[in-house]
Amino acid sequence: MDARSIIAKLRRGDVPSREELIWFAQGLADGGVSDAQAGAFAMAVCMGGLGAQGRADLTIAMRDSGEVLTWDLDGPVIDKHSTGGVGDCVSLVLAPALAECGAYVPMISGRGLGHTGGTLDKLEAIPGVTTQIGQARLTQILQDTGAAIVGATGQIAPADKRLYAVRDVTATVESLDLITASILSKKLAASPDALVLDVKVGSGAFMKTHDEAHKLAQALSETANAAGCRTSAVITDMNQPLALALGNALEVAEVMKVLTGGGVSPLAEIAAELGGTLLVDAGMCDTFEAGYSQIAEIIRDGRAAERFGRMMAAVGGPVHFTDNWARFLPEANVIREIPAPYDGYVAAIDGEALGLAVVALGGGRQVESDEIDPAVGLSNLLTLGTRVSKGEPLAVVHAAREEAASQAAATVLQAVTLSETPVDAPNLVHERITP
After folding, report:
1. Is 56 in the same domain as 84?
2. Is 18 a catalytic residue?
3. Residues 133 and 196 in one domain
4. What is the pLDDT of residue 112?
5. Residue 305 shares a structural domain with residue 412
6. What is the phi/psi pair of residue 433, to 5°?
7. Which residues pair with 236 in a beta bridge?
8. Is 398 part of the annotated catalytic residue set?
9. Is 91 a catalytic residue?
C-alpha cells in the first residue's frame, strides 16, 4: 500500500478499504504520510465523501492509531461530548451527577476553539487544578471520585492531531466525514460503554441550521454505534448562551450557583436531558423519564455539588472549594454594566459575536500559544424574551483594562437585538436520535 494509490482511489470517487484506511491513519501517526499527502487526502474526502462504512472505518483506524484506554472498574464507563457553543458548561454539572448515580465518567475534553469556550480552560480557572493526567492517576481518581475531566495525552488518536492541523490550513475543516472521525476517534479511545452527543444548533453554535445539526448528529451517532459504542445524540438550542455568563471563572461561578442553589437553570435541564439518555443507554435506568428525574434530583439536593468538590480536590483544587467557591475564583480589574440603549424585549442574541468578544478580552485564544485570563468575560446576560428598560444593564463586562471593556461593550450592543414586541424563548431540546 502507498499514500498515492489511496488518494488516487478517492479522487476517482471510490472509497478506500478498511485496511487502506488503517494504513493511512498509521502513516499520519508515525510520519509515513507527508503533509502534502495528508492535505490531498483531506481534500479528496471533503469533495467526495466516504459514505457511512468508510466514515466508520476511518474513525476506528484513527482511534487505533494510538493508545486505547482500558478499565477495570465495577460499573459502566460513560461519557458525553458537545459540539461546542457559548456558555456551555454542562459537563461540569453532568459529570458529578452521573458519578453519583454509580457510573464512571472519564471525560476527555478540549480547550477553547474559535468562539466557543473550552471545558479544560474553565476548570483551570480554579486555583491548583491540573487537567493533564496519565491513565494510572486517572484510574485512581475514577475509583475515588467516579468522574474526572481531563485533557487528552499525546498518545490518544495521534492520527487525528496530525490530520486536524492539516485540515485547519487546507479549508477542509467542514467535511462531515472528517468532523465525525475527529470527534469520535478521541472519544472512543476512552472506551466508553455508552456515549451521548450534545449537538448544538443556533447563533452560538458551529451548526447554524437544524438541517446541518441533524446531519452531523446522525453521522456521529451512526458511526459510534457502528464502532460498538451504544450512542444517542440530542440536538439542543444555542440561539442564546446556556449560562448567564461567558468566560472561564464566570462560567464556573454559574455552575456553582446551579449546583449549590437548587438546580434551576438551562444548564441543569440540559444535564438532566443528556444524563437521562445516558443512564438508559448504559442499562442503569429503564426509562428516559426515570433517568431525567434521577439526575435532576441529584443536582437539586446538593449531591452533585459535593461530588464536584471531591473531583476538584483530586486534581489539585482547593479541598473546600464547594463550601466557599466565590473566594477562590479570580476577579477582573474592571467590572462595569452595559446599559440598554432603549426600551425593548431581547429578540435575538448573536452568540458567536459574544463568544468572540470574550476571546478579544483575553478569555480565549487568538493563536494556540496565547495565555488565557481566567477572570475576564461577560456576566448577568439577559435571555431571549426578557424586557429591559433604557439604561438597565444588558450585561456586565469583566475586563483587564478600560479600553478592552469599552470594546466588549460595543460588541454586546451590536450582538443583542431589542424589539418592541415580546418573543418566545426557543425550546432547549430540538431532536433526539437514539439507536
Report:
1. no
2. no
3. yes
4. 65
5. no
6. -125, 115
7. 200, 429
8. no
9. no
Residue 317: the pLDDT is 95
pLDDT at 204: 84
* Distance, first Cα to last Cα, the chain: 36
Q: Is 320 a residue of the active site?
A: no
Among the listed residues 59, 65, 119, 223, the single catalytic one is 119
**Helix (H, G, I), strand (E, B), or coil: what is residue 177?**
helix
What DSSP character marks residue 136?
H
Whether residue 254 sits in one domain with residue 111: yes
Read off the pLDDT of residues 87-104 as tens digits, 9 standing for 90 and up: 999 999 999 999 999 999
Taking the CA of residue 71 as centre, how many other CA atoms within 13 Å lie in the half-sphere pointing to its CB?
22
Do 232 and 433 contact (CB within 8 A), yes or no?
yes
For cell 452527543, the residue is 197
The label of the residue with cell 501517526 reads 29
User: What distance in Å separates the CA atoms of residue 121 and residue 133, rounded to the nearest whole number?
Assistant: 15
Given 55, 63, 186, 430, the catalytic residue: 186
Question: Comparing C-alpha atoms, which of 276, 268, 280 is closest to residue 294?
Answer: 276
Model confidence pLDDT, tens digit, residues 135-147: 889 999 999 999 9
pLDDT band at 279 (very low <50, low <70, confident <90, very high): very high
Q: Is the pLDDT of residue 155 over 90?
A: no
Catalytic residue among 116, 139, 175, 182: 182
Per cent of the chain over pLDDT 90 is 83
- Residue 36: is it exposed, middle or buried by C-beta count within 10 angstroms (0-12/13-18/19+)? exposed
Same domain, 375 and 266: no
Tell me the angle at which helices 176-188 and 210-226 cross, rounded to the nearest 10 degrees. 50
Say whether both 302 and 198 belong to one domain.
Answer: yes
Q: Give catalytic status of residue 122 as yes or no.
A: no
Same domain, 214 and 270: yes
The residue whose grid cell reads 480547550 is 111
pTM beyond cutoff 0.90: yes
Establish whether 186 is a catalytic residue: yes
- Domain of 375, in residue numbers: 331-419
The reply to whether 82 belongs to the active site is: yes
- Nearest to 429, CA basis, from 286, 271, 301: 271
- Number of structural domains, the chain? 3
Active site residue 79: yes
Whole-number Å distance between alpha carbons of 319 and 309 = 7
Is 350 an annotated catalytic residue?
no
425 part of a folded domain: no
Angstrom distance (rounded) from CA 314 to CA 69: 20
How many Å apart are CA 346 and CA 246, to the nearest integer?
18
Report the alpha-carbon angle 195-201-205, nearest 5: 95
Among the listed residues 55, 57, 65, 82, the single catalytic one is: 82
Where residue 378 sits, what CATH number does that domain have?
A: 3.90.1170.30
Q: Are residues 59 and 122 in the same domain?
A: no
